[in-house]
Amino acid sequence: MDQTVKLLLVDDEPLALRRIRGFKLAARGFEIVGEAENGVQALQYVERLKPDIVVTDIGMPLMDGLELLQQLQQQPSPPKVVLLTCYEDFDKVQIALRFGAGDYLTKVMLSEDEFVSALQRTAASLRKEHEGTELIVRILLQELLLFPSENGLANLKQAGFAHDIYAIAIIRTALPLQDACAEELFAAEEEDHQRRCLPVRMSPDTWCLYFYSKQRENDASFYGWYSRQCGRIVGGLRGRKRIGDYVIAAGAVYHRPGDLPMAYQRAAAQCDAGFYTPSWVIAREDETPVFTSFPQERFRMLLADMGNAVQRGSGADAGALVSEWAHSIGTAFHPAPVQVRQMALAIHTQLEAFEWERLGETGQEVLQQKFKLAAESALHASVIVHEAKQMADMLMQSRPTASASGSMRKEIKQAMSLIAANYAGIELGETARQVSLSPSWFAALFRTATGQSFHDYVQEVRLNQARVLLRTTDLKVYEIAEQVGIPNSRYFSRLFSEHVGLTPLDYRKNDRM
């Protein structure tokens, strides 16, 4: 409820109205927004002015105060009513109190203090009711936006929450924003008492901000006020480091309560439009994002080359490939956010096997964690790209491992490249033929160079790739088994469990918790 309480005075006696106008109500937090001569006129003013309290005489022509009270009580969210009575009206007062009147005063010898005290009691009761009503409204609004239905809209209207001028903004944060912090940050500045912002948490990291005007007529300056509020909120978010990355999408202004679910869905979709813009730039509903997919075959080859570099222990080559990918995001290609995140997680998994040999180096662990966190939660491409470049720099500064020394024969290096590119269907005999060695001699050289048999090495590559697919896709286990070259899903599950220590389904479940 607004700090200033709005009053509508209803009395057919001009002297009575003049007397009340003479009270110092503004200093006590009350504002007279209108005056009516009878109940019929008062109903029209209530519809237009939305007063918090109606102060009405009981005895009036056309429609008296008692009938006015009954009419008001039929409205979804009626104002409180304070009755002005004469001594002989007490029978009517008792009826009025049963009908829900908030208080009553006798007009004879009415003092300012007595009048203000009655208003304060009524306002306190109204504030208490509003607190409970607002909680209910938040729940109903959340249900309507998540599960649109005619019944949900009717429930919201019945709670008195339906506006002719409103807009929805969506805020997503990489880390959850605490309720108390959100309420403080999202509360609209009260330029007047006709506009408000109601924040509703939709998920741990997503808030819906419902901006609305109480005016029934056209509010020409509403959009400007709404835009300023969004700008102010962005400024507040920039100063809060604990929430990490964030994005805000501001929807258009709507005029029909029935459009609420559509307004929310459009604003939510706009969050992706801000993926390639700075975090402080608000994504608007009239801005349609255009995404260009990263070529699947190109990324598959890049990932295979990266895996090959990791197996060779070549940080320079692995880092160069990570850097190549990072520099292409947002320049040569603008993939949809979900594709960028999946690619980043696949790269992170590929790099997990890299053997660091910089003595005393712990920075790579921090960088790996930051890169994974960015891949999982960043709301802007620039955050993921930055962490990828940091990882690339660290890789390129690392010393080669022993397996990357010049002692490895070129035939074995060539074979490792073939495995990385065609791990699903590769065979020892065909690989030996392609590197111009006999199968037996090639097998012996391969074991000496890698410390593993050809079969075990290929199996490890397949299982590592299966980990990538389990983490970055929704493919079924048997589909992943076939894709990595182990068509027997039961055998694949047993191998995976021995290699990772978890079943494929448990691995996927743990990774997504």
TrEMBL record:
<dbReference type="Pfam" id="PF00072">
    <property type="entry name" value="Response_reg"/>
</dbReference>
<protein>
    <recommendedName>
        <fullName>Response regulator</fullName>
    </recommendedName>
</protein>
<dbReference type="GO" id="GO:0043565">
    <property type="term" value="F:sequence-specific DNA binding"/>
</dbReference>
<dbReference type="InterPro" id="IPR009057">
    <property type="entry name" value="Homeodomain-like_sf"/>
</dbReference>
<keyword id="KW-0238">DNA-binding</keyword>
<feature type="domain" description="HTH araC/xylS-type">
    <location>
        <begin position="413"/>
        <end position="510"/>
    </location>
</feature>
<dbReference type="InterPro" id="IPR018062">
    <property type="entry name" value="HTH_AraC-typ_CS"/>
</dbReference>
<feature type="domain" description="Response regulatory">
    <location>
        <begin position="6"/>
        <end position="122"/>
    </location>
</feature>
<dbReference type="InterPro" id="IPR011006">
    <property type="entry name" value="CheY-like_superfamily"/>
</dbReference>
<dbReference type="Pfam" id="PF12833">
    <property type="entry name" value="HTH_18"/>
</dbReference>
<dbReference type="InterPro" id="IPR001789">
    <property type="entry name" value="Sig_transdc_resp-reg_receiver"/>
</dbReference>
<keyword id="KW-0805">Transcription regulation</keyword>
<dbReference type="GO" id="GO:0003700">
    <property type="term" value="F:DNA-binding transcription factor activity"/>
</dbReference>
<dbReference type="InterPro" id="IPR018060">
    <property type="entry name" value="HTH_AraC"/>
</dbReference>
<keyword id="KW-0597">Phosphoprotein</keyword>
<keyword id="KW-0804">Transcription</keyword>
<feature type="modified residue" description="4-aspartylphosphate">
    <location>
        <position position="57"/>
    </location>
</feature>
<dbReference type="GO" id="GO:0000160">
    <property type="term" value="P:phosphorelay signal transduction system"/>
</dbReference>
